[in-house]
Amino acid sequence: MNQEEFISSGLLELYATGISSVEETRIVEDYLKQFPELREELKEIEISLENYAQANAIRPSSSVKEKVFDRIFPDATVTEEKNKISPVIPINRNPQSNLLFKLMAAASFILLLGSIALNYTYYHKYSNANEQLQIAQQKIDHQEKSNLAMTEDLNVMTNKYAQPVVLNGTPHAPDALAKIFWMKNTGQVYIDPTNLPQVPEGKQYQLWAIVDGKPIDGGMIATEKGIYHIQKMKSFGKVDAFAITLEKEGGSPTPTMDEMIVSAKM
What residue numbers bound the domain in which 21 lies? Predict the structure, then answer.
């Protein structure tokens, strides 16, 4: 397995807590030799485990302390002496109790480290899964927007009142092409700029409607990142012709005739 798979396996956490098997220990040490950069990951895990242990340390109550010392030192009768662990009471007076206490403490510590390692491993895997879920959700949202745009485009093109008007290229852009969909019942205007050339930086396409021989602003055409969709422009009840010019970004009050890209008469 590669480095990412190895890190996600949880072997480093088991190794850091000292509860990895002989085979698991061998695997970890082989990977540490093969990929020295993994030592930094191991160091971060050890620091995280230490911080977790310190943050979750629980101080026992005085009653628990009394019971523990009563079990370890059954001959002690003075509470103050128990608390001070008086030298009058030898620590090895009851070796079996002392050994039992040490074994219980060691077992509790190992269980705590094992729990920390397990929680850390699951948290690491959960974080990766959550990140992948967010990426997948973003892709779904993008696809849904694309599907919605395609549906809206189709509704415009198949509208029974839509009169298509093809705008052909001018000498400035002979290969350019655009299509207008003018709704005869409402005067609404839609444009498909798919076949217009890529917009230069700082420029933007602007639609013009020629009404009674005068150009009237029909709105700015959005061409974000070169991905064009049919978009609604300004409405016109009567139009003699349409034209598209290349203007400075934000538009112009009058068309720049030298920058006319496409045009068509109605």
Answer: 3-57+94-136
Determine how many CB atoms are found less than 10 A away from the CB of residue 162: 18
- The closest of 190, 183, 171, 189 to 263, measured between CA atoms, is 171
- Would you call 204 helix, strand, or coil by DSSP? strand
Name the token pair of 78.
């003075």
Residue 18 shares a structural domain with residue 112: yes
Same domain, 114 and 217: no
pLDDT digits over 208-246, tens only?
A: 999 999 999 999 998 776 556 789 999 998 899 999 999
The answer to whether 221 and 191 are in contact (CB under 8 A) is: yes
CB 187 within 8 A of CB 223: no
Beta-bridge mates of residue 232: 190
Distance between CA atoms of residues 186 and 180, nearest Å: 14
Closest by CA position to 24, among listed 36, 10, 35, 40: 10
* Number of domains the chain contains: 2
- 35 or 63, which is more confident: 35
Strands 214-221 and 177-183: unpaired
